[in-house]
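Listing S7. Sequence submitted for prediction.
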Amino acid sequence: MGERRGSKLRGALEALGKVYGKEGARNPGDAPLDHVVYGIIAGRSPQRSARAAFARLQKGFVDWNELRVAETREIVEHLGGIAERAELHARAELLRRTLQALFDARDTVRIVFEDPTDEEEVVRALRTVPGLSPGLVTSMLARARPDPPIRLDAGISRVAQRLGVIPRTGGEAKQEAALAAAAGPGEARVLLHFLLGEHAEAVCVPNRPSCEECVCLESCDYGRRRGAEG
């Protein structure tokens, strides 16, 4: 069973990588906080535009702590045309609130993963930020590690279950263990958080998924069953 799930996951990631690209799995920047900043400003904007905006922020501010105390309008000026003006303002304000929440909870915006309690502390701080969804927190922190632990949010869980990569029952711990075993170490762990998350929002939505457009249809248990029933 584990070998079958691993083969199915690898095939899905390869197919999805051709649709969404793979560079998005590795956000620009080297530090964990870079991934948080990029995750907030990127939204659903094209990756090239989001990366350019990230580079402008890096060049325009001494560090992310300086950005924390900047005015929202200053941040918006560096984001350029990655979204409509109102959306740019919302992302800039969310970024500022996130950095402030990290600082308020820990007296620093810097994020390090030196022991297990470090991440728990960061997650607690991020979950106090209005507008910062648990799914986005999960995705940002997962991408911040070279060999990230498996974290299931609703979208990733939905796609993985439909593909038949994880069991539908048994609880989150059992599902995360199954996905970790299927992914193995290394690149797949990084890619799956990005690619399954993208697919969950674009095609494999909760209601009325676009199975006929899905590049994973041939190997998807749910999609083939849905087609047979339709």
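Caption to Listing S7: primary sequence and predicted structure tokens for the chain studied. The chain has two domains: 2-22+149-229, 25-143. The chain is about 65% helix and 0% strand.
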